[in-house]
Amino acid sequence: MRLIRQWTISICLLRESRSMKIGYVGLGAMGRALAGNLAGGHDLLVWDLNPTAIQTLVEQGARAAISLADVGANCDVVVLCLPKSDNVRDALFGSGGLAETLKPGTVVIDQTSGLPDDTRSFVLALSEKGVGLVDAPVAGGVPAALAGQITIMASGSDAAFEQAYPVLVSISPKVFRCGQRVGDAQALKAINNMANAACRMMTLEVVAVGRKLGLTAAAMTEALNAGEARSFITERMLPAVVEGRSSTNFALGLMVKDLNQAALLGSRNALPMPISDVARGMINAALNLLGEQARLDDVVPFMESLTGTKFVGDAERNVRPLGDHAVEADAMRLVTASIAACNRFIMLENAALAVKVGLDVSDFAPVINSGSASSAEAESLFDGLLGRGQDIDRTVGKMLDCLTRLTQLGSGIGVPMLMTNQIRAQCLQSVADVGANARLTALNGCLVTTRNPANR
CA torsion sign, 446 to 449 to 455 to 456? Predict the structure, then answer.
């Protein structure tokens, strides 16, 4: 996969996209942010079930459509950003849907985090009408979308992608091509979200241990971002926790939907995903407790309740003195090393799924590294798989020792080590497979053995 025009957009592409009539359907938090990059400078026709959402885009320079059929009849490119594939099916093929009026030569861009198999059925039905389709989900969150710097992953035929590209690059210059098979981009998006969720819940769990050992969230955030434990989560979520602000407006219910889709992908490809399943279960539990209006940021107070601590403030009541514990001044090193080890195993599991569904490391590594599942350990893992960089001077046995100390200590101070105990179990199995003295690159062999030739 190649990153296309990451920092600059050519004048000819701008002119091409501005000469197109573009339709945008689905103006939720993400769709509204993405469509906003097209409003004003393009002939943009928008549609949503929420009139207020339509009016917001009209105020930015778009025109309001009177129906889905109106969008289909009057646009060269139609972009969809809906909650799930069932909604896309209804918008395309339901009564009064887009397919009734789409003209031959039109291309549909589906930015929904949908099911790859469903999307492949859509492209077959649309091809009978001479209409192309590209799936182009995004990663990075609403703030990145508003800034015009969100990561877009796209897959589809050369002809459809060529037509869609000027529109995509007008939304963000960070456009990655995943190949010609429709649905591959959506598969990668599901994998990206699963890795993000696992990293999120694991990081909060380990930080809770650090808090109970007397470390402040601010100090941990600084230390984590200074080295091998750095990730999208430590760079985006933790500073927001420290400052008492929101880091995302993503609905928790939509995250659960995305995680269930990733789990289904693993099941259909006969790949166990024990680490990801724990994260999915924890987030599903949070949704059940907090209700349908909960946002992804609400997993922070959920984890405070689960671990019996506060991430910020109220230190006297919630944080035990370092002198009560054996690690004492070693606490920060234990926290950072444990999070780094966990990030490595989280990405190993999710990269194995990407390989299993037929994606190449050279294709998906740039997307992961630029999106919401990025981490220093993921970058190191991919460098090793692609034959770049030097072998890391860490052994699997040392990682196991670190995780064993953390899980024993955390359990002793009242933190239910759900994520890290599962990751420790995977590390223990790895020691049995490759030996305690093996370097981390010895773990990469699992990605080679998971490839499913039927997916290529």
Answer: positive
Q: Is the confidence at residue 321, as pLDDT, over 90?
A: no
Distance CA 16, CA 23 (A): 15
Read off φ and ψ for residue 424, nearest 5 degrees.
-60, -40
Residue 231 is which amino acid? S
Instruction: Look at residue 17 in the predicted model and tell me its pLDDT.
Output: 59
CA distance 254 to 7: 30
Q: In angstroms, what CA-CA distances link 106 with 97, 160, 194?
A: 15, 9, 33
Rounded to whole angstroms, the Cα distance separating 48 from 34 reads 14
* Cβ–Cβ under 8 Å, residues 107 and 134: yes
Tokens (6 digits) for 371: 């999106």
pTM exceeds 0.90: no
DSSP letters spanning 132-180: EEEE--EES-HHHHHTT--EEEEES-HHHHHHHHHHHHHH-S-EEEEES
Question: What does the pLDDT look like over 167-217, one tens digit per residue?
Answer: 999 999 999 998 899 999 999 999 999 999 999 999 999 999 999 999 999
* pLDDT tens for each residue of 60-106: 999 999 999 999 999 999 999 999 999 999 999 999 999 999 999 99
Q: Residue 329, class by beta-carbon neighbours within 10 Å (0-12 exposed, 13-18 middle, 19+ buried)?
A: exposed
Per-residue pLDDT tens over the stretch 352-390? 999 999 999 998 999 999 989 999 999 999 999 998 876
Q: For the chain, how far is it from start to end, CA to CA, in angstroms?
A: 15
Neighbours of 412 (CB within 10 A): 12
d(CA 60, CA 49): 18
Q: How far is CA 449 from CA 195, 351, 444, in A?
A: 20, 12, 10
On the CB side of 147, CA atoms within 13 Å amount to 10
Question: For residue 404, what is the enclosing H or E element?
Answer: helix 396-412
| Contact of 99 with 93, CB cutoff 8 Å | yes
- CATH number, domain 21-182, options 3.40.50.720, 3.40.190.10, 3.10.180.10, 3.30.470.20: 3.40.50.720
Q: Where are the domains of the chain?
A: 21-182, 187-449
Q: Tell me the three state secondary structure of residue 186.
A: helix
Task: State the CATH architecture for 187-449.
Answer: Orthogonal Bundle (1.10)
The owner of tokens 């506060």 is 310
> How many C-beta atoms surround the C-beta of residue 411 within 10 A?
14
